[in-house]
Amino acid sequence: MDQFQADILAIAAHRDDVEQTCGGTLLKMADRGYRTAILDLTQGEMGTRGTADDRAREAAEAARLLKCGWRGALDIPDGRVENTYENRLKVARVIRQLRPRVLILPYWQARHPDHATASPLGYEAAFLAGLAKLDLGAPPHRPFKILYASLYADVRPTFVVDISEQFETRFTALMAYRSQYEDQQAGSGLFPRHEEIRERVAAMAGYYGLLAGVRYAEPFVQKEVGLVDDLLSLPVQSI
Ligand SMILES: [Zn+2]
């Protein structure tokens, strides 16, 4: 691994989870000059379509589109993401190496057990990463802020990020996973599945956008309360 350091690190269970839940936000932050990174916990070897190698190439292309400076994948078994000490150490090593100020994790309740488990696994790894006496070969580091990307969960977000300008690129990044999203049975050259996915992705982003009065947005939950200095600069109209 190189010496890249990140302002923001997004961790998710599977390649393409980040594209679906917070890819627009990562792109927006990269456009603002922040260094972004993605850590996928698994390599996708259990996927019905394509191989882990296909997914690695697709993930690299998606990261390029999102202007992400670093992307890595651990060797945790796909479909068996478990919050073990061994896995926490693997994640903690990456956190120490990248030294992010902001850590984005999946929301802790999810239909897919890998998504749900990735959340406490990431949180506890962030804690371990800060322990001075734990020797992991890199200096201790703990992220300042942990945010939970909640798009997969039916939960009211603490805040949303306006991704109206980033929506198209984020969708293109998702479609970089050709082995997953192209309709491989269709012989017509058209991709009905592609259209269906676009409709669904736009509906979700549009819903969260509507909550804040913008076109497209991505939802996040934070456990801490918000802190405000200036009441007159608060966004989102009430009435
Ligand atoms: Zn997933």
Q: Ligands in the structure?
A: zinc ion
Strand order of the largest sheet: 3-2-1-4-5-7-6
Separation of termini? 51 Å
Note the total helix count: 8
Biggest sheet character: 7 strands, mixed
Beta content comes to 5-15%
Q: Please provide the ordered H/E string of secondary-structure elements.
A: EHHEHEHEHEEHHHE
Q: What's the pLDDT, averaged over the residues?
A: 94
Q: Provide the gyration radius in Å.
A: 18 Å
Structural class, by secondary structure, is alpha/beta
Number of strands: 7
Helix content: 25-40%
| Low-confidence segments | none
**Rough outline:** globular
Draw up the topology in text.
Elements: E1 8-12, H1 17-21, H2 23-31, E2 36-40, H3 52-65, E3 70-73, H4 85-98, E4 102-106, H5 113-129, E5 145-149, E6 159-162, H6 167-175, H7 178-181, H8 192-212, E7 217-221
Parallel strand pairs: 1-2, 1-4, 2-3, 4-5
Antiparallel strand pairs: 5-7, 6-7
Helix pairs in contact: 3-6, 4-5
Bound molecules: zinc ion.
